[in-house]
Fold this protein.
Amino acid sequence: MDLKNFASMDPIMLMSIVNMKLRDEFSSLEDLVKYFDIDIITLCTTLADAGFEYQKEQRQFR
């Protein structure tokens, strides 16, 4: 799934997709945003507004 339109996605679905991609395809959040050419701050802010914070040690949003 392409994350380039992440700003218009349902935040729960977005969190689920990002966590799945981090678990299965990318070794870091930085690698994920670079691959999809999206802004890390905007992604994190979008998810934070929905109540999800990035847990670097677990490589997932919770």
